[in-house]
Amino acid sequence: MKYTSFALLGVLLAGPALADFSVDMEAGRRESSFDTGKVSAKNYSNEARLSLGYQLEGLTGLPLTTGLSFSTAKYDNFTGASDLTTDAVHNSVSLDFGLIGSHESLLTPFAKLRYTLYSKGEREFDGIETATGYDARGTETFRERGVDVSVGTYFPLMSFVKGMVAVDIGSKMLEIRESKVDEYQINLAGGPDRLQSLGKTKDNSIGYNSVSVLLGLSAQL
After folding, report:
1. What is the residue range of the signal peptide feature (predicted)?
2. Contacts (Cβ under 8 Å, ≥6 apart) of 103
3. How does pLDDT run across 64-103, given as a tens digit for each residue?
4. For 1-10, 63-72, 134-143, which range has the lowest pLDDT when averaged over its residues?
5. Residue 7 — φ and ψ, nearest 5°?
6. Which residue range(s) make up the domain with 215?
7. How many domains does one find in the chain?
8. 13-42: buried (b, 16+ CB within 10 Å) or exposed (e) per residue?
């Protein structure tokens, strides 16, 4: 039984008509926007993504794909909500499902749905929070929940390596897990500035939409 299992695994890995593996490496720019009704803002980030895919010939004759994506994003400052100077990094892992067109054509279109399995982000902030009117310094941890839809195409470069371009559209919830404000200074009318310390606070989730444009390379194994 053990040898039969190894034989079946070998056929699966060796048979290109049955299965195929791919490694995609992408980098690009993302724009995120939200509107709570009281505050609206946009945020920009540089994003890098590594995707490990497994393709299986589907009933339609087009290769279906599933796999995992590992992403990291470096955020710029928010605009509109605050004048805070921020330094934020976010890492995530997503489960991918997709459909890829025929590899026999010059361009190979694809569409993928990415569901966030794991997400962790942290930012440091220092500046003036215009929504509340205080000078603040502190740290904040957050996570994202939701899905991205990725649409793009592969194009030939060399044997076993293709170029790729993709546009991702996301709809997610940004959940602030913990905000730790080290100190803030409120400007009180008619009185001196007061310096106070805050403990840890929790905020509500914020829904947001995002659009990313990414370029990359894909290796077919």
Report:
1. 1-19
2. 63
3. 889 999 999 998 765 444 555 567 889 999 999 998 887 6
4. 1-10
5. -65, -45
6. 21-220
7. 1
8. eeeeeeebebebebebebebebeeeeeebb
